[in-house]
Amino acid sequence: QVRLVESGGGLVQAGNSLRLSCAASGRTLSAYVMGWFRQAPGKEREFVAVASWSGSATYYSDSVKGRFTISRDNDKNTLYLQMNSLKPEDTAAYYCAAGMKFYTSRSYSQGDFDFWGQGTSVTVSS
To answer: In terms of CB atoms within 10 Å, which of 96, 98, 122, 125 comes out highest?
Structure first.
């Protein structure tokens, strides 16, 4: 079992950048496919990005493709989400998740992941 703790959220103006981190403990990060999801107030949790076990392969939702970059440092047991050109519609609680499935043929659902962090809040002002 792995424990995940997100950090790096905050308030930022539109057009600026923010980097989220997700620190893993209890089991090595390299054992898992890692992903980011987000949940805006009043909306369902949605997939953002995923990285394969080594991080060599990634997949993004259309809404963040070209603006967000997922990466991982397995030696540091940490997952990252670099968010550039932020928009007000990116405002949400962001969650990292660990699972065992990786594919790029379709988007992910919450059921594809087994372990979740508690989330970190991102607010983008216009």
So the answer is: 96
Read off the pLDDT band of 62 (50, 70, 90): very high
Please answer whether residues 38 and 92 qualify as being in contact, where contact means their C-beta atoms are separated by less than 8 angstroms. yes
Question: DSSP state, 8?
Answer: -
Sign of torsion over alpha carbons 22, 27, 55, 60? negative
Quick one: what percent of the chain has pLDDT higher than 70?
Answer: 100
123 in Cβ contact with 91 (< 8 Å): yes
Instruction: Count CB-CB contacts under 10 A for residue 83.
Output: 25
Q: How far apart are CA 96 and CA 104, in angstroms?
A: 18
State both tokens at 102.
């990786």
Whether 21 has a pLDDT exceeding 80, the answer reads yes
